[in-house]
């Protein structure tokens, strides 16, 4: 259905099934964080509509606030501290989904009918498999997620994907990281941040 959330492909990276795409997240210029060296990400679509997303944060951890290991459960407000985010929706459609993944193992999922219009995503089988590895200066979080449990995502669709992160420093200041930032304040829901195109099996492309 047509709406203002239409996503263009002119500057996107395109990946097909079974391929893995790596991309660097960029800090929003209004929220600099000198103690984060880099945030890298990768995404892979595997047979059975299984999506694997990996985030690798490198920085001076003694000056960062990283949630400690905890239980794998749903929790709200994860973006108020260090967490990683995934946005995904069908090409040329207003509907999209947001996922928050904390290094603690907590997670949350939301569904939106259009730009910021929505709420919690309900349903059984949503639980992502989250794995966290911590090093002296590297935090790696990997997520395995089945797309079959999301009604707006079908195997014959082309999808737009946004990868992002929120990082809290030792002073409680938040920095915002994304594949691409729109003009103005940080906004992961903006169409410009959906910078990867994911092609699922049987996807139909529009003619130019």
Write up this protein.
This protein is mostly beta strands. The chain has one domain: Immunoglobulin-like, CATH 2.60.40. It has no helices and 14 strands. Strands 1, 2, 3, 4, 5, 6, 7, 8, 9, 10, 11, 12, 13 and 14 form a 14-stranded mixed β-sheet that branches. β10 and β11 form a beta hairpin. The N terminus and C terminus are likely disordered.
Helix content: under 10%
Tell me the overall shape: globular
**Biggest β-sheet: count, sense, barrel?**
14 strands, mixed
Order of helices and strands: EEEEEEEEEEEEEE
State the separation between the terminal residues, measured CA to CA: 19 Å
> What average pLDDT do the residues reach?
87
Flag low-confidence runs.
1-11, 202-208
In total, the number of domains comes to 1
CATH architecture: Sandwich
Radius of gyration: 16 Å
CATH class membership: Mainly Beta
Strand content: over 45%
Q: How many helical stretches?
A: 0
Write down how many β-strands occur, each being a DSSP E stretch of 2 or more residues: 14
Question: How is this structure best summarized?
Answer:
This protein has no helices and 14 strands. With 208 residues, it is mainly beta. It has a single domain, classed as Immunoglobulin-like.
SSE blueprint:
Layout: E1 13-15, E2 20-27, E3 36-46, E4 50-59, E5 64-65, E6 83-90, E7 96-101, E8 107-114, E9 117-120, E10 129-134, E11 138-146, E12 158-169, E13 174-178, E14 196-199
Parallel strand pairs: 1-14
Antiparallel strand pairs: 2-3, 2-13, 3-4, 4-11, 5-12, 6-7, 6-12, 7-8, 8-9, 10-11, 12-13, 12-14
């Amino acid at each position: 259905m047509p709406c203002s959330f239409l996503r263009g492909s002119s500057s996107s990276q395109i990946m097909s099934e079974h391929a893995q795409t790596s991309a660097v997240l960029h800090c929003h210029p209004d929220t600099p964080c000198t103690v984060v060296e880099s945030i890298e990400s990768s995404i892979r679509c595997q047979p059975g509509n299984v999506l694997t997303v990996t985030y690798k944060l490198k920085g001076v951890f003694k000056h960062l606030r990283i949630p400690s290991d905890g239980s794998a459960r749903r929790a709200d407000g994860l973006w108020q501290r260090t967490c990683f985010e995934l946005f995904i929706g069908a090409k040329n459609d207003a509907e999209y989904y947001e996922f928050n993944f904390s290094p603690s193992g907590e997670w949350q999922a939301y569904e939106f009918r259009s730009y910021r219009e929505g709420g919690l995503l309900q349903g059984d089988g949503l639980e992502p498999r989250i794995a966290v590895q911590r090093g002296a200066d590297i935090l790696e979080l990997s997520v395995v997620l089945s797309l079959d449990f999301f009604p707006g995502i079908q195997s014959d669709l082309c999808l737009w994907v946004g990868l992002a992160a929120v990082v809290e420093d030792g002073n409680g200041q938040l920095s915002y990281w994304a594949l691409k930032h729109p003009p103005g304040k940080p906004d992961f829901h903006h169409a410009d941040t959906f910078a990867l195109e994911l092609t699922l099996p049987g996807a139909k492309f529009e003619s130019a």
